[in-house]
Amino acid sequence: MQLRYNFRLCPSSGQRQALARAFGCARVVFNDALRLRAEARAAGLPYPSDGELSRRIITQARQTPERAWLGEVSAVILQQALADLNTAYRNFFNSLSGKRKGRKVAPPRFRSRKDSRQAIRFTRNARFTVTESGRLRLPKIGEVPVRWSRSLPSDPSSVTVIRDSAGRYFASFVVETSDEPLPEPDSEIGIDLGLTHFAVLSNGEKVHNPRILRRAAKKLRKAQKALSRKEKSSANRAKAKVKVAKAYAKVADTRRDWAHKLSTRIIRDNQAVYVEDLAVSALARTRLAKSVHDAGWSRFVAMLEYKAIRYGRHFGRIDRWFPSSKLCSACETIATLMPLNVREWSCPCGAVHDRDVNAAINILAAGQAERLNDCGVRVGPGPVPAPREEAGTHPEPHARQTGISVF
After folding, report:
1. 356 is known as an active-site residue
2. Which of 79, 254, 324, 326 has the maximal Cβ count within 10 Å?
3. Of the residues 84, 294, 319, 356, which is catalytic?
4. Taking the alpha carbons of 393, 399, 400, 401 in that order, is the dihedral positive or negative?
5. Are residues 262 and 300 in contact, defined by beta-carbon separation less than 8 angstroms?
6. Tens-place pLDDT, residues 326-368
């Protein structure tokens, strides 16, 4: 299994200039290739092949006075810029044809030197190395100090050097891992995600919602007001812009760290984890959009998914149309109405339910039933008839996802 290991870089002023030069060269190669393909499409000609693009934009361009400075950087990062363009086109065309599932992918766009994120990639052909002193040696850049927080499990196949909007530099290594499965516990868990509580577990545990963005709102508002008062194109405005970016980066880092700790604990303590497949993109278009984005459900679920595969756990998604909140976990009766302001309800069978705990119990039961059934179809904890007013309104059953996305 391939994973990314990210570490902070501390380049010197000269290395920062060399990295800026490398970022600019990779950006120019990407834009030149995109321009050639756009011109070929406008003229009705076939797209230039990868070999032709490499020959015209890199090999021949470095021999001209206008592009002679392309020879000041490693040729590997220029080739990887062309590979990034091919990947962008492939994703775009697969999205149009339906081969790529999910939201539609836009066509590639020109890169700008003002983009908040700049990146270059070195492969093994570039012969980058980690020295005995713990520095990252990059061709035509030098030995860059690295803040190591853990050791690499194997030799990296590539490293991506990233400069974010806050002016920080990171090295992202792609390594092959072979982690042994953790000891198998007897417990399985169902998780109901929400906003009042970030997660409610089927064992009754309620995880508070940290509301990291809300807590940092005052500091963010102060930084943004200071930015708005600065004169455009001035040095002070550039400094204020970096302060705003650092404030937002701190929010993102805090949220990511919190989600990693919670997901690791859940995966370590449970053999199987089941969550509901929420339509986060749809919820992010409602009046609760800020709170939904602040919660970060998608990243948390993605962490659960890849950590389950890494450590030998089972991960399952429950159909978003499964009535987990309205279904009585005791007698399997579906309530007719369940507004969001109803947090506790009583079933005619006499059971009194906490809305979120009941939903988590139903998610666990549905996940266990689907795992035992192993047919890929949606099944509930028992024979659950659909209410008459909902019959015929459901879309196609959501296909189970088999791929993972690692952060």
Report:
1. yes
2. 324
3. 356
4. negative
5. yes
6. 888 888 778 878 778 778 878 888 788 888 888 899 999 888 8
